[in-house]
Task: inverse folding
């Protein structure tokens, strides 16, 4: 194991390192549930909880690979447009007589290709991910409009649409939630329990040091963007199934929610820290908040304000806490923090 990767592993105190931030999220969730129950008598019903989870599953699915990308010190703002492009291509192929068993793999390949484009421009040529993915955000949406135009395709077979809004037999668990749990579980193991995850953390903490320590930074970053594009295309397919319609403007505006969920889950926007369990918990917090606001007949504009404030607070609060902690350490004469003390979103 290289020195940098070993240091990244030692710097994290294990799963205890995320408990403080997760405990705060649990507290916020409890408060939101209490408020929601007061706003509407239907809030605590099992059907409502199934609906609020299903409504955010595409965002949740895209947030998991986004977590790995941000932990590595990058960002992918193009995910919503890739989901829209996936929906457009799927609708175009289906309208052209291509079976879904062929169309869906082709759409996933397109998603991986879009991620590869991002990865090559960012990792191979050293271009800033913020600018590149902002550009492909417009590029992919433009391609979606070219492929499908203003029309929509809605005559999908029931077996396909059932995946989007159906439930596991005998339960109220939406099928997309099963997909989310599977992706979160798999990538959670990769990030927190494998050498790949340790290298991702090392890259996020210090890219050049990781490179000099033998980490294949370029290859790993490209792989992360390919994964992000692939999963965004999968989210586009699931969204098409849930809405029973393919449109070029599908998933518009989802990137803001994806980034909000990831940062609220304890991922440091500058890279090097974060956890999958924290992001999964943040998904539930945002879903409950949005559902409570809808049941209270709050306007879409106010909901957008609430989401924006949540994004700002998810960055401001931990950074303020870290600065306060540093100031206290300086007052104490620079003594190291007590054993077992942790910071927001450390590696698990």
Result:
């Amino acid at each position: 194991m290289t020195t940098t990767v070993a240091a990244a592993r030692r710097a994290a105190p294990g799963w205890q390192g995320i408990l403080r931030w997760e405990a705060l999220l649990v507290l916020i969730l409890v408060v939101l549930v209490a408020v929601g129950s007061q706003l509407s008598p239907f809030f605590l019903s099992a059907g409502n909880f199934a609906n609020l989870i299903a409504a955010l599953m595409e965002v949740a699915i895209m947030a998991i690979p986004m977590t790995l990308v941000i932990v590595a010190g990058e960002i992918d703002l193009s995910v919503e447009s890739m989901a829209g492009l996936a929906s457009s291509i799927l609708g175009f192929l289906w309208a052209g007589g291509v079976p879904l068993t062929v169309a869906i793999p082709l759409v996933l390949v397109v998603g991986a290709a879009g991620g590869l484009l991002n990865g090559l421009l960012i990792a191979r040529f050293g271009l800033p991910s913020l600018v590149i993915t902002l550009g492909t955000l417009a590029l992919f949406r433009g391609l979606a409009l070219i492929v499908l135009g203003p029309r929509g395709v809605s005559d999908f077979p029931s077996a396909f649409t059932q995946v989007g809004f159906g439930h596991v037999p005998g339960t109220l668990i939406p099928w997309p939630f099963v997909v989310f749990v599977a992706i979160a579980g798999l990538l959670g193991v990769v990030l927190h329990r494998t050498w790949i995850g340790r290298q991702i953390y090392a890259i996020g903490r210090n890219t050049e040091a990781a490179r000099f320590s033998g980490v294949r930074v370029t290859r790993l970053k490209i792989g992360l963007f390919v994964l992000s594009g692939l999963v965004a295309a999968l989210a586009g397919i699931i969204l098409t199934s849930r809405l029973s319609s393919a449109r070029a403007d599908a998933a518009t505006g989802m990137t803001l929610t994806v980034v909000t969920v990831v940062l609220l889950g304890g991922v440091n926007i500058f890279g090097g820290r974060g956890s999958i369990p924290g992001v999964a918990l943040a998904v539930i917090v945002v879903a409950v908040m949005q559902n409570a606001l809808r049941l209270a007949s709050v306007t879409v504009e106010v909901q957008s304000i609430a989401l924006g404030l949540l994004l700002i607070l998810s960055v401001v609060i931990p950074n303020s806490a870290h600065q306060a902690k540093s100031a206290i350490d300086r007052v104490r004469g620079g003594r190291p923090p007590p054993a077992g003390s942790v910071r927001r979103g450390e590696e698990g």
About this structure: The chain has a mean pLDDT of 89.
